[in-house]
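assembly run, all chains below
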Amino acid sequence: MNFTLNVTEFWHWWILAAVFFALELTAPGAFLLWLGFAATLCGFVFWAFPEITFMNELIIFAGVSFVLLLIWYKSFRGYVPHSAQPHLNDRASALIGSVHLLDHPIAHNLGKIKVNDSYWRVEGPDLKKGIKIKVVDVKDGSTLLVEEVVSSTDAH
Amino acid sequence: MSGFEIFAILLVVFAMITVFKSIISVTQGYNYTVERFGKFTQVLKPGLHIIIPFVDRIGSKINMMENVLDVPSQDVITKDNARVHVDGIVFYQIFDAPKAAYEVTELEESVINLTMTNIRTVMGSMDLDELLSHRENINSKLLSVVDEATNPWGVRVTRIEIKDIRPPQDLVDSMARQMKAEREKRAQILEAQGVRESEILKAEGYKQSAILEAEGRKESAFRAAEARERQAEAEAAATQKVSEAIAKGNIQAINYFVAQKYVESLKEIASAENNKILFMPLEASSVIGAIGGISEIAKEAFDKKGGHQE
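ok done. output:
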């Protein structure tokens, strides 16, 4: 079978890009997006250099994909989109800054508080029952570090 | 197909696979663990990430959302040797993905089994009555134990609830009987109290009415006495006046008035229907004069009576 097609136009690559982008909508993950960008870029390249053979075009497409990947890895890896709720799935962090009343005294720096009908382990200074405390940090993902709320003018 | 062509095509395929393996998009609610040469290296939080392909691979996809597990039914023997059938539910959430992935095998199975054994422990130390009326206690005891135990696995247990506590049917029946007896006892006590109260009130009522009656009589006696007193006083005063008048005036005027009254009363007696009583003045002279009048009156009286007898 003769696979050599020399009749590809540069814009065929853009059709391919469109196909990739369309598939991206249905398939999970984001890799088709990359291939789509790579294909778009290739289209431009082959428009500029129409004498490249199809086989070479394929190789260049592969190369461009890798290069794009590398560029993203080096420069944009830390990109995290902004979230309206940054503490989703992280209940402990979501509690930082909240104020509660102690139901059980903190003894030997360990205690527990009740939030939303569920108990959290609490670490902080030894305090008696009924004192208002504020969560300041999270330790080990499930223990809350607390301190006493000192004045009544502390904002919630 | 020349070798070069095959190479080109394979290269493209390879590129696509590489891109596929490197670009990881983590869904919100999940954390992915990354292993490099089999060893855990990092956690991928929700969002876009690029990992080094063929060197790094995704180990596990951990669900970080709160989840619920059904604790299957089991038989537990309480402290007072009652056998109850218990099931429950556990709410948990993973807060540390690598620990959940690598510190424990079969996470759900482990949590369920842990809960089941602790249910037996906690319930085995309580009486049946305590069990049925203090579920809150059971739930919090279970929660504190199981939550502590699952911490090393990166799991936080938010709630444990006992769903169903089913004692054997004959126990349930006797409990129903006990309650019924309790209620009947109360009903009877209330009835008796009601009767007692009503009798007391009745007696009080009679007492009050007797007192009031007696008081009334006392009052009326007083008043009657007062009235007689007044009357007597008035008569005395009248008599006084009369005697004064007599002393001042003529005795004949008095005689006139006496005779007038006498005649008036005769008239009334005569007009009464079945009278037979006629009184006569003691004065001898007027007796003679009055005989004629008396015979007239008597005649009339008897005629009338005769008339009536028709």
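The mean pLDDT of chain A is 83.

Chain A touches chain B through 39 residues (CB under 8 Å).

not gonna interpret more than that til we talk
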